[in-house]
Amino acid sequence: MSQLRLDPLTGRWVVIASERAARPDAFLRPALAVQEDASRCPFCPGNEEDNPALETYGPNGSWLVRVVPNLYPAFSGDEPMAVSNLGPVFTQAPASGIHEVLVLSPAHDTPWSRLTDAQAGLVMAAVRDRVEEHASTPGLRYSQVIVNAGREAGASLEHPHAQLLGMPFVPREVADEQAGFARFEGNCLLCAVADAEIDVRHRLVQEDERAVVICPYWSGAPYEMLVIPKVHGSHLHRSQPQDVTAVGRAVRDALSRLESTVGDVSYNVVFHAAPYRAAGGFHWHVHLLPKLTTPAGFELGTGVPINLIAPEIAAGILRDARVAAAAS
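Below the sequence we write its predicted structure tokens.
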């Protein structure tokens, strides 16, 4: 029997309908390849002239992580966010801000799931540094960090990379999560979630001394995961390096478990933290969202996702999955 579950972060309902997983072709096929000429990949070593770096990380003049401007930015320029009304229902403002690409590794075929401990830590150090830089930029209010892997997840280039977008407003999803933290009658919503899941272990995928990975009780997609740092903090860019690094390793291991479970599937990684100058409770975290199903009319018409695998089952499968060894 299907079940409704409430997402306390956003206040939205999700439907857990495991019986629907028995339908033929319930899940998408393996990820569609991103079509490109790998010999001219702009992110591979030797093609650096295509994208001059904003920052590089690595020893002796070589690079292991590289940050470059996005050639096709969604946000650019430094115009103030002056809202203008062109009529009773036509409101606009300049899309000023920053849009950057963070190249995860020089290797063209090494996604986050196969990074070494050291490389995952370097990626997270770069994320932390760039968000800190964004936060010091006048007019910006929030940075969104994402990874799109595979065509179904929105990737246009195969070389593994993240995107960092600094924007002059707080997006709706983050504002909804802020409201979720404010509604919670306790110390911190995600501290409570992490403690409860570690205690009952029904939806626990993995944990170490600094980070926990769960399939949230309110999962809206098959094998959806949530990575929560154990040390409470509102802002990624103000967190201790060891906690930021631990989250990077946890993301790596969780994606490796996903690969072992469902193969080469497209996915999104979404980082959420409090807006730069926000007061009040928040706990930064990371959403891992595999693209195993396609939203249909019900989901698009209602905003209510239907999940074909109960998170308790998904967590058990992921917990037992092999994690690819990654030497430091």
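The chain has one domain: 53-71+96-320.
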